[in-house]
Amino acid sequence: MIVAGLTGGVASGKSLVAKKLKELGATIIDADLIAREVLCPGEAAFDEVVKSFGREILTTGDVIDRKKLGGIVFNNKEKRELLNAITHPRIRERMMARLAQLKNNKDNHNPNGQDVVILDIPLLFESGLTDKVDCVIVVYADVPTQTSRLMQRDGLTEAAALARINSQIPLKDKLKTADYIIDNNAASSETLKETQLLFEKLKNKAEESRQLFPHKS
User: Fold this and answer.
1) Strand pairing partners for 30?
2) CATH of 2-212, one of 3.40.50.10790, 1.20.1540.10, 3.40.50.1260, 3.40.50.300
3) With 60 as the cut, is the pLDDT of residue 217 above it?
4) Spatial CA neighbour of 89 closest among 127, 42, 43
5) pTM score, two decimals?
């Protein structure tokens, strides 16, 4: 088994790459989905976030309005760090538990899916999980491309889009420690081709690992 960390910046195209990797047979552990889980009513993180940010972040159905919460934290570093301090440890714990389950689940072995496991984490570097993966994949798009996509996708102003981009570690910095880079500035068809080639490399590495360490793969 090879465990790869997949990251990028907001509107860089990471979701497109993750979707393609899943179609090709990789098992995806999605941090965004787990983040939604830990912020559901009844979860400890839900109570802490409401206590910290106020009930005005709730919808009429008493669930957290993620868009409203995002508008707060993307424009305030202190509040963003507070939210991260509440949610990141819980997200990390669940991701590691699911990874451990995959490693230990010999009965339901999936020859493709469990050979290549992708930890899909937008804040891979920020959350300190790079030491939990065998390699790091960064999906790259330049800032003008990110900005344009965010404005079109989410109906944001240029200032709001840039605030979201600037709330993360610059993608150029992430590239310095990436093992694999997928450039998503061009047409999506090219990105998908790059992703397929990358998946083949990861499968080959998983096979090499299995041959070297047959009892650990």
Assistant:
1) 120
2) 3.40.50.300
3) no
4) 127
5) 0.88
